[in-house]
Amino acid sequence: MSNSNNNLDQYIIQLVEDLRYSAQNLPDPNEVAEFDEESLPEELKMFADVERYLHGKAKKLAIVTGIETEKFPPVERLNDAHLSLLVNEMIRLLGAYGFYSGFPDKLPDEWKYRALRKKWDKEVVYAGGEGIVHFDFCSYEPDNCPFPQQYCGCKHFEGPDYLDDSDFSNNDLYGSEPF
């Protein structure tokens, strides 16, 4: 094994440790979102995470997690094992923060990594609590899909046969009896 590969392996191990540390030491969502939960009326305190999401300050995901985007090596430097490990650890970290990343079925890790790394520079509101914020990487327009066409999850939603008005009737929605 070359010294360069060994150094990169060691770097990846340290990065994974940093990701896991962040996942195990979540910051106070009120501080991150610059939100004053204490000022909420008593009847809204049980919805603090929702209020924080709606009214909190968005910050780059890199700031929220404490892991700078630059710490993630360019995809070209990573082998398949690195990609698999980093994608799984990034998704686990995001899950700890209440963020869910949805990807098309069978999308290779290289593309997941690219999308996640790019997301690290985007602003998000860290709400904490029990809710989940979904990261969607698709605009649901196949012509603008960020992934290779064979993995486009929305291409089956288009076309004349997908849905038309005859697919639905009031009976489907409400049963055969009126209200």
Note poorly predicted spans: 162-179
- Assign an overall shape: flat
Mean pLDDT: 86
Number of helical elements: 7
Q: Quick one: biggest sheet?
A: 2 strands, antiparallel
Tally the structural domains: 2
Radius of gyration: 21 Å
- What is the straight-line distance between the termini? 73 Å
Strand content: 5-15%
- Compressed to H and E, one letter per element, the order equals HHHEHHEHEEH
Count of distinct strands: 4
User: Largest beta sheet: what is the strand line-up?
Assistant: 1-3
Alpha-beta content class: mainly alpha
Helicity level:
40-55%
Structure description:
It is built from seven helices and four strands; from the N terminus they run αααβααβαββα. The chain has helices at 3-24, 29-32, 48-55, 61-65, 80-96, 109-119, 170-174, and strands spanning 59-60, 99-102, 123-124, 133-136. It is mainly alpha-helical and 179 residues long. It folds into two domains: 3-137; 139-179, no CATH class. Helix 1 runs parallel beside helix 5 (80-96) and helix 5 packs across helix 6 (109-119). The chain has a two-stranded antiparallel ribbon with strand order 1-3. It has a two-stranded parallel sheet with strand order 2-4. The longest helix is centred in the N-terminal third of the chain and has 22 residues, at 3-24. It is flat, with a radius of gyration of 21 Å. Mean pLDDT is 86; it is low at 162-179.
State the gist of this model.
The chain is mainly alpha-helical and 179 residues long. The chain has seven helices and four strands.
